[in-house]
Design brief:
ATP Synthase, domain 1; five-stranded mixed sheet; 135 residues; alpha+beta; Single alpha-helices involved in coiled-coils or other helix-helix interfaces; five-stranded antiparallel sheet; 2 domains
Length: 135
């Protein structure tokens, strides 16, 4: 047990995942980073992106929303707005969401109060499509 990495993924609604894994990779605000047992303690913000982990030599892929991660030498705690398993992503819906966000952004001024919200929707849709390809 001393050589195991515990991964917990928490959303506002639930504990989405809690188990021992071999490694986890996260999309930090400063770039992607991997975590193995014995990692130096770290706090990082998480951006919309892919989270994957390896358990029993098999990778699992997820789309996560923004949040934070606390890493210790034996545990990775990830607090995110949302999480979607790659296999549950409906590609056609993601494509429609991407097209809709792109259409809304055309001609939208960056000072528009809705600009960041629409940009975030576009980022989420694009990442959703990338993560869905992993299946």
């Amino acid at each position: 047990m001393a050589d195991d990495l515990m991964l917990e993924i928490v959303t506002p609604d639930r504990l989405a995942f809690s188990d021992v894994v071999e490694e986890v990779t996260l999309s930090g605000s400063e770039g992607e980073f991997g975590v193995l047992v014995g990692h130096v303690p770290l706090l990082s913000s998480i951006k919309i992106g892919e989270l994957n982990y390896t358990k029993d030599n098999k990778k699992a892929y997820y789309l996560v929303g923004e949040g934070y991660a606390e890493i210790t030498n034996l545990k990775a705690t990830v607090l995110v707005e949302s999480i979607e398993e790659a296999g549950s992503i409906i590609v056609e819906e993601a494509k429609r969401a991407k097209e809709s966000a792109e259409a809304r952004l055309v001609g939208m001024d960056k000072d528009d109060p809705d600009y960041e919200k629409v940009k975030k929707s576009l980022d989420m849709a694009e990442t959703r499509l990338k993560v869905a390809e992993k299946m």
